[in-house]
Amino acid sequence: MTPPVSSDSPPDTLDIFSRVRFIMVSPTHPGNVGSAARAIKTMGFHDLHLVAPADPDIVGHPEAIALASGAGDILESARQHASLADALGPVTLTFALTARARAIGPPPCDIREAAAQSATELGRPDARIAIVLGTERTGLSNEDITLCQRVCHIPANPEYSSLNVSQALQLAAWEMRYALLPLAGAARLPDTHARHDPGSDPASSERVQAMLDHFEQALLAVGFLDPRHPKKLVPRMRQMWTRNRLSADEVDMMRGLCTAMIRSAGHPAPHGAPSPRTLLNEHAQAPGPDRHV
């Protein structure tokens, strides 16, 4: 497979996500490249750049294609460069993603701060952002970092901060997406497309009270409620259900549960059977052993 021709022409659209590129320096494992393609596509980005990969046909490797898992278009359009300086040509703000603290170099920030700075930068239509990641084994060199304006860290466990390069890229892409969505005028939650589920509407008081009567019948049927010694079980139960503002679907679900409880007890209530409240009143004064319910 012939490596794609490097091109840094501006995108056809000024869509904010198209102005963020992810650059992998000297990648050696095809699986990481494929996983990186999938990572950025799931977050709405598409601009993947590879600097001097170990295999010029790394994007065509079967492992890369397999781990891209539906992001083959990102692999096919990935641009290759001979140097990081070439890959950064049109970029106005670059973040070098690294786990190591650097005594000398650009000012550091964490990945969330980097995303916020990117959102501010991308308010200008000519701005371009880049997230740069190093090799799987050694990360970015000091020479690579001198080409960047910020050193960026993921606040991981200090005792074990080494992330797989594609995992680090996924976290960076997520933070970038979260910060850029408001700027792009997009929602952070899935759109229901105005579809309304009537079952989620609050149930009417009449339906809730009918369900509570049914529930008392079920408790009587299974022997949990002693009508001779109800104590405060019934009012507490009613208060609990009323306080939770049941939906129409939840009421129907509870009615089904009550019916199953009564059938399982072996004596379904006949048509026109007295309500549980009537049964409780009839047995309120009847003698019998104490029941703690």
From TrEMBL:
Gene3D superfamilies assigned: 1.10.8.590, 3.40.1280.10
Gene Ontology BP terms: methylation
Compositional bias of kind Low complexity: 264-277
GO molecular function term, any single one: methyltransferase activity
InterPro entries, per the entry: Alpha/beta_knot_MTases, RNA_MeTrfase_TrmJ/LasT, SpoU_MeTrfase, tRNA_m1G_MTases_N
tRNA/rRNA methyltransferase SpoU type domain sequence ranges: 20-173
Keywords carried by this UniProt record: Methyltransferase, S-adenosyl-L-methionine, Transferase
Region annotation (Disordered) ranges: 264-293
Similarity section: Belongs to the class IV-like SAM-binding methyltransferase superfamily. RNA methyltransferase TrmH family.
Record protein name field: RNA methyltransferase
Species annotation: Castellaniella hirudinis
